Amino acid sequence: MDPTDSDIVRVFSLNCWGIRYMSKHCQQRYVMIGEMLSIEKHDIVLLQEVWSEKDFLFLKNKLSYTHPHSHYFKSGVIGSGLAVFTKYRIHDTFLYRYSLNGYPYMAHHGDWFGGKAVGMVILTIGGRTAHVYVTHLHAEYCREKDSYLPHRVVQAWELQQFIRHTSAGADLVIVGGDLNMHPQDLGNRLLRSYTALKDSYLETTLYAGCEDGVTLIANNPFINKKELGPFKTGIRIDYILFKGSSKIDIHCDAMSVTKGSVPNHPFPYSDHEALTSTLRLKSHQPDESGGDKETKHQDFTKEKLAELVNIVTEARTEVKVGLHCTERMRYTAARTGVMGLALLLLQLAIAAVPWLALGAEQPFPKTSFYLLALLCFAILLTTSLLYVFYTIELKCLQGAEDQMRLCVGHLQERLRGFPLAQPHNVLQCPLP
Amino acid sequence: MDPTDSDIVRVFSLNCWGIRYMSKHCQQRYVMIGEMLSIEKHDIVLLQEVWSEKDFLFLKNKLSYTHPHSHYFKSGVIGSGLAVFTKYRIHDTFLYRYSLNGYPYMAHHGDWFGGKAVGMVILTIGGRTAHVYVTHLHAEYCREKDSYLPHRVVQAWELQQFIRHTSAGADLVIVGGDLNMHPQDLGNRLLRSYTALKDSYLETTLYAGCEDGVTLIANNPFINKKELGPFKTGIRIDYILFKGSSKIDIHCDAMSVTKGSVPNHPFPYSDHEALTSTLRLKSHQPDESGGDKETKHQDFTKEKLAELVNIVTEARTEVKVGLHCTERMRYTAARTGVMGLALLLLQLAIAAVPWLALGAEQPFPKTSFYLLALLCFAILLTTSLLYVFYTIELKCLQGAEDQMRLCVGHLQERLRGFPLAQPHNVLQCPLP
What DSSP element (H or E) covers B374? Predict the structure, then answer.
């Protein structure tokens, strides 16, 4: 292959909202999605919320000619919902399940049961090794009082760790998915700053779609306008990110986002909009030193390093807030459990030693007595499970905070290594 | 740094058996371990089963001069037990929690509560990037009827995935820990074949220790001889593995394993023996093509590829056995749950509609009635939790099996790519 050849890779990403029997017109929408994908023939298709394996298999069957290679990532109780279809052969896959992902007792939110994760597939595109990631982060149900923020920040932390550490051998990196974060949200800044991934929407030459690149829009008939809150027209939470390497330059020639309706169809593909990025790959000439410049140790400018230190510090603060909340919840669970146990022991004592109840004018009604015992037992069991769950959550938060502290220390040390007198000194560019 | 310089790195690994108040002489042993480490001054110390953070902090304090850099990996309810101490600065860390790790109701085995994982730290050793891994896999409680085998095989699968995918940018890789697998066990072959990691014991020039490199030995006073079963003298389940890269050659000059006693002390450091490997690093001269040969796509000989296909197929079979067992257990949980529910509903019906019990000569004794209801309720709750747990286990096993199937397909394709007429054709060496 001529190293100066340039290739076009069309990447598609969609959150399919595929909860069987719950999401509106679920099956009809999968038929629409399958038809569109088989006509459009994107090179790489990254889907989220394909909660049912049957729907994945339906798409796999439908796309067997246009996208002969596919992978469905399994995780959690329901699944991770993540699927990849591509015309390139998949050599290898790897799944990282986020350590924190909501609470099982928040069943109406359902995130915990979904086993949110980031999946990686390794492809060869015209002789180049592409590491393609698909992910879906915990949803934001209430922006003003977002109790899942520490979880999402830890997910963003683990996502950037996973991408950084597994992409050292890649010629190009493509990330697509529903990050459930606005462009300037902490987790998003953390991800993009640390990995140097570029945002298709910000980098594209041509753009077709709603203003501000929004992917959850008021015009979508499946969207409840109230959920968008102050963001009247919509929010941007789905992304296609990319980066090249010392060997490959990538440019986003075009990006398009659907606008809440599909021609000749009564409803859109999903409650999220579909994203398509057209990426142009261009091989570098080997540099003058005669060898490939390695990018395994990402090099930042002094400004970028300082910004990163601030972002990781901000993330650390958010994790500490999460730690404080979880400690409080664990304490409440422990206290309630102890009270339940005390009440149960008291009841057992009353049952075993009748004179304890002698003072009562009437005997303790048996039905109430047993119902109370049942309640105590249920409290004891529930609080024990919660105590274990919160302890695991604490360990994960502490672990993430430890890693962040270590990284901040390392980044600050690198920052101190920059010469003082040259404020705009750039040793090496962030990425070629 | 002169690229032909050779460096010595001394690596230490020990499973500390550090269950506070349960493991014998726990605190005294930590004092012994701390003293030995501060005298021996190994370059990299990899510890497992440091279950209490207090003990980690004790060692951190004790080793603050000899090993100023350390990291403790947090996971699960108790912790991962994994700790690293080193004289080299730690730049970055990453933790991968194994998706399967026993059962929470097997509390006497305790593995589930430990949150078994593999931790990675990135160090710079004389200008070279070292990726150092420490891990501890699920214990084997009964070799003849090992119900945790599918879990351990999936852990070994995830371990090799994690090492392969995160070490592409490394100049050298060091792995230490308690794998809970004999040298020829499936998971061990899988790990070493796929990653091309070398075993210190097999590669060393000088060896000092018990015969066959055993690390769980009959001579250790903390070992119950019965647990060793037919392996009278002991078994080898702790390892220090390593590999170089296109830039670095590594050779194991010496390896030593303790022999169940410590001079001037009444008991050994742990129930496991301590391992020390002396690794010699030697930089390659840049090869003749003028650039670095990349090893991101590991190259195998035809024989190695065929062997790997067989091993992954064997692992896939083991995972399928696990799938079958888990499906059966989930079915049992579901059936028991339905029976509990039916009994509870019957009781409620008896309570609500008195004529249902009219046929009885005596009324249903109230105490028995309520105790039975309590039992039904407990059964219903337990089986529901078990059902959710087994469903998660099934997803993990299915996910691992999918990945293995994909890998076998890819490996077989590479195997077909080898010319037929040259049975000993070697395109590229396994690793420099």
Answer: helix B366-416
